[in-house]
Amino acid sequence: MSTRGIRIEHLSKRFGQGDTAVLALKDVNLQVAPGEVVGLIGPSGSGKSTLLKCLGAVIDPTAGRMVLDDAVIYDGGWKVRDLRALRRDKIGFVFQAPYLIPFLDATDNVALLPMLAGVPNDEARRRALELLTALDVQHRAQAMPAQLSGGEQQRVAIARGLVNQPPVILADEPTAPLDSQRAMAVIRILNDMARRFETAVIVVTHDEKIIPTFKRIYHIRDGVTQEEAGEGRGFD
Amino acid sequence: MISLAGRDILHAWGKFVFTGVGLGLLIGVTLTMAGLYRGMVDDARVLLDSSGADLWVVQKDTLGPYAESSSVPDDLWRGIRTMPGVAQAANVTYLTTQVGKGSQDVRAMVVGISAGEPGAPGWPPQLVAGRQITRGHYEAVADLATGFRLGDVLRIRRNHYTVVGLTRRMVSSSGDPMVFIPLKDAQEAQFLKDNDAILMQRRRTEANPAFNRPAVPGLLEAVIASQAGNAYVNAVLVRIRPEATPQEVAEPIRRWKRLTVYDREQMEGILVGKLIATSAKQIGVFLVILACVSAAIVAFIIYTLTMDKIREIAVLKLIGTRNRTIAAMILQQSLVLGVIGFVVGKISVTFAAPLFPKYVLLVPIDSVLGFFAVLAICVLASVVAIRIALRVDPAQAIG
Fold this sequence. Notes:
heterodimer, A: alpha/beta, Rossmann fold, 6-stranded mixed β-sheet, 10 strands, B: alpha+beta, two-stranded antiparallel ribbon, 12 helices
């Protein structure tokens, strides 16, 4: 079976030791194919953020297996030496708030990632401009984050997540601060970009407006995931 | 790779510039303190240079004439003049006092020099205006720093003097400008009593049967005359012959005249090592305090700037920025702040130095040392902020 995109098997995460131990993730199984956008939903405290941090190689899972783009990155322990490079090159992040670097313009906010990876500045900026054009914010390329609207900031943040063409994008409540129209626009962009760049996108959300747009949804409850089919409205 | 520090500074330039100006004023004060110390040392050297002496002959076992009071008879110079290796010898008196002009006065060091012997030790070596003292009384040569001009009439004790010449940068070891007057006037000024005191002393002497003996005519007048005059000077300045060494000239004077003799090196040691030692220590303590305050300010500012960016730092770490890139950003900002501060400080002290009443000597090496000290302080000051930044958990960006 192909493991392009991302596949998680029996992932668990325990915080603390002994009597005070908390099992935040018990048995998480999840697979997202390239070009697919899935929703990850669940109530507060269900383990969504913990799962996102494990997938983002920010915290260490306790057990399980993670395969990313045909490479095992975790199997009872990290199989990758440089987690920082893994995050930079293989995982894109889109946050609830855009969290753009306030002292870099839109282009450099996007170009920073390839620059960190050693791509020459001109090439990095060219890639950034391409993405900003694809996301229809090329006219704001030289604007500082404070000069951008909320929707423009979020599109720049999406461009930053995509710029290194990672096999997976983790989006944490990307539509939370947006109205319905803008929220749908962001989901549309994520779907378009997923297809265009063959990227697997996991969207953690509470947002009732966008849940019907997912074809597949993972419910997480008490640290256990359950897959179900979504309505997949609007993005065929 | 773009410079994150540079972009952040450009983005918040106002904050950096204003902070840098504040820091710069502090650095300016630090440089001024160093300049004051250099100025004091330079004043001491100028005093020795301007005296034109190779040897200072002073009262036995004293550190005179600058660091302690010294009193030697005013006819001593004749004997010293005949000693082997001595080219010139001249009496000199020093008296730091208020010199008046009209209703105002300035603090000055009044130097008594033997009138009519230009070029003798103790005489001002160069004048910037006017002429040297040629009359035995009531002429003066003043330093420009006193504010006097040619033709001004100044008052020292009860006597008035006309300024006939002006010098530049002739100062005492404490920075007071010099006023040269004829030796006899200076000797009188040193021990001048008011009229009432003179009358009282005469009456006391007349009432003393030891001095007022009917059988010894002229004794009382002689005693009164000796009390009224001053036959002492503070030192004899000696210029040696080119072929002689200070040691070989000084030794016979010590041995046969029973006096203390200092050469140039010893006198500089007294002035710099003893006379201004306390002031130098005081300035040193101030420098340490100012360095600590500067470090604390830079550390606080960099700490605050870093704390303002915790979320951005978490994002940077999450997207794969290396720790050294983040540390370099904070360090560079700290260094830039230091450089701005140093430039502002250097410029401000350059313009402010002439306004200080004391001589502030800005030596290039002090600026170079100061610059590197500022950089070192900035590096140290950024350590706390860097430690905080490196401890930021990238997970904070996820929530």
